[in-house]
Amino acid sequence: MLTKRIIPCLDIKDGRTVKGTNFINLRDAGDPVALAAIYAEQGADELVFLDITATVDERKTLIELVRNVAHTINIPFTVGGGISSIADVSALLNAGADKISINSSAVRNPDLVNELALEFGSQCIVVAIDTRYVNGEHIVHTHGGRRPTELRTIAWAKEVEERGSGELLLTSMDTDGTKAGFALDLTAQISGAANIPVIASGGAGSMEHFVDVFTTGKADAGLAASIFHFKEIDIPVLKRYLKEQGVEMRL
Q1: What CATH code is carried by the domain that includes residue 120?
Q2: What would the pLDDT profile of 7-23 be if each residue is shown by its tens digit?
Q3: Is 11 a catalytic residue?
């Protein structure tokens, strides 16, 4: 059985780590380079770095910050935000990222997923899907969750897998920052339909929530931010707890 992964997420705004609820009301959570170092040391399996206003501000991801984080850690590192071309991906991989995450640009130009997978290999292409439940349907949102699209979440997840995405990063905007638990039904539907790993994001508030997302939700990885940033849950303690609950973990 493949081991499940615990992934802290650094949402970056103006060079600082921030965290909000339902994608708004952001508060400062610290220096991203220092946090990255702590998580690598604590045994996080991977790290995700999202420049959350890059697309909205119509600018590129903070390359220098990516380089500083990459120099500090020794675990796989995914970077997202404002990525829209082969040149953008090339620059980030050269700066030390192991994988890149695209969201708005994939919705705007779905062929980009094919192009990046062909150029760099599916193993380093993650498609992030920000989704909200609207009028009885799960709808994909872009621009940091600000813009609803006409895409249905499950159909979009299948499409980007077919186009060459190597992994899906699924964030439920309804549960994000609430600490009330992951969106288990949706995660299970997408995990069940996908032949690539699914990272579940949005709603972690307790260690039990991770058990739920790995069992009921069938996720391959659990991503969280505030509970780690504000030291509510310690990664080594979480991983030991999951192991005790029968979830395969790398300790």
Answers
A1: 3.20.20.70
A2: 999 888 877 777 655 54
A3: yes
